[in-house]
Amino acid sequence: MSVFTYNGITLPYAFHTQFRQEAVYDEQGQTDWTGTKFDIVVQAVINSNYLSQIAPEIAGRDTNAAEIMDYIRAKMMRPRRALSIKFNGVELIPRPANVPGTVDIDNGPKPQSCSVTMLATTTFLVTFHVIATYWESNPFNSFPAQNKPGSPVRFNRWSETLDVDNAGFQTRTRDGVYKIRTDMEEGLTAGELIPSMAAVGVPDGFVRESASYVVDPSGTAIRYRVTDREVFKYPPEPAMAARGVYTETCSRGGIIRHGAAHIQLKGKKTTPQQELVHRAVSVVSSKLFMRGAELRGPAPGPYITFIESAVLNVNMYENEVDYSCRVLFNTGDTPIQGVAAFVDTVERTGGSNPEKPPRQTVWTPRSDPPAPGPAPQPRFEVTGTGSVILQAAAYYDPSLKTIRLDPGQNQLVAKGKRLLWVGGAGKNKED
Question: Which of 105, 161, 344, 409 has a C-alpha 20 to 30 A away from that of 374?
């Protein structure tokens, strides 16, 4: 026989019709043991003459049988109350002694049913079913580091998806779930652990496309999704996103040449908008200078590029700026460069007069003759161009003597080896 107590109600000489213990694994990958579920059904015969031991709060009151049954049922059906089962003085519920409160690790205990049957005027049969989940701190076993006693996290597991477009650019998405214990002394919520549980570094050559977090209705778990996209160029500091285009036009046989640059920048909420304006003007000016927009030219000059227009748009309610500039390039005494330089047929005139500048008479886009046979297909890179290894949440099992967790890649590898990037592919190399 054992002594069963729940929420202040003690059932003496309780008979356990079910005392089932099940290992609870994480819902995401069924990999980590995150606790033990106790599924208990108990029966006991109680007598109102012993209320001082069964329900001390109502002992000595002038109560009838119906009031006693209602009181016991109401007390036994309240969730998240202290549960204790002792057999020969030994506690069978593995609840840590140093953790205050009455809640288990899964927002319980959770009573399932309570039946109180009157056998006689002062005698009742109580059948009670309760489910509770606790973390077992067994000194003879080793567990993942995040599940050691005292840690607020039960598990954190994820999977990754890699999408590769037809140009080899990658988009990596990590979908994961982490769950906290509800019996922790710190009293943290799942949302407070987002920076430590769901933060993922951005690989080189990638930008953070989006990050989303969904709290479980129970308040004990966060489902997160983090998406990183590979880019051709990084946005200029301090912008978080950028779009831009450079346009060059020629007319009158290449004698008149225009250049235009347009850029859109988007910053964080904390980024001063004036810094975005300065960066936008700087990027556009640099691009135009790179294409030949000189501020001065050779003697007898000066040959100054003429700015035809410049437009700045500043969003008043979003941290975005838009800047464009169009210039008339200075040609001076130098050959025409830019779009007009890409020609198939060029006729230069001037004869024996070296002072007469060359002249572009024909301007056609450069093209190649069609190759015989079927057109060649571009090479498609199966894993794209980004240095990203797909991985799931790694865990460590002390029984695997030849396996360790590589700190650089967060992957399980053989001891004495580490995971390196060789030729764009992950390979094991000796340390």
Answer: 344
